[in-house]
C-alpha cells in the first residue's frame, strides 16, 4: 500500500511539473508592447525571444503628430513682430519705435486670442491696425486742440508707423468719383438726402479699407445734397 501511494505522489508531481514548464515556455508579447509604451533593454530581449518562439505580437497604432502651420513670414503680423525684435536690440535710440510697435503686436495678439486663431490674416491684422490708426488720428486732433504739441507729436509718430502696414488711402478726388458711383447705385430713382445711409453702405461695400470713412462722410452729404437739388 505504501509503495502504491509513493508511485501516485510521483505521478502527481510529474504532471504538475510538466504543466508549470508549459506555462513558462508559452510565448507571449511583452506587456510594454501591448500597452504601447517605450521598451526597455530587458523588454527588447524578451521581444526578440518571443519573436523567435513565433509569438503573434499586436503592435500599437501610433498617430503622427501634426505640427501647426508656420505663420507667413511676409504677412503683416509677422513683419510687425520682426520689427519689434529689431527695435528691442536698437537701444535707447529705438525706444520710441519699440513702444509703438509693442502696442501694435499686443493689439493683434489680443484679437488672435479672442478668435482662437493660429495667426491673423493680412486683412485681419490690418483691421486691428486700422482701428489703432483711427484712435491716433482722434488723439492728434484732441491734443492739438488742447495745445499739447508734445503729446500730439508722439501720436503722429506712432500713426506714421501704423500707416506703413495699412493700404494706401485714396485721395479726395478718387473718393468723390466713388461717391458719385455709389449715389447712382443706391438712388436709381433719383438722389435723396434720406438715402445717405444706403450711399455710404454702397461706398463701403465697393471700396472697404481704401478710404477714410470719417473724411468721406461730409463729402457724401455734400454731393448727395447737390444731386438731390438737381433732381
Automatic annotation (TrEMBL):
Keyword Signal, does the record have it?
Answer: yes
Keyword Lyase applies: no
Gene Ontology terms, MF aspect: carbon-nitrogen ligase activity, with glutamine as amido-N-donor
Q: Which InterPro entries match?
A: Asn/Gln_tRNA_amidoTrase-B-like (IPR003789), GatB_Yqey_C_2 (IPR023168), YqeY/Aim41 (IPR019004), YqeY/Aim41_N (IPR042184)
Write the record's keywords in alphabetical order, separated by commas: Signal
Record's superkingdom? Eukaryota
Full protein name: GatB/YqeY domain-containing protein
| Species, as recorded | Phaeocystis antarctica
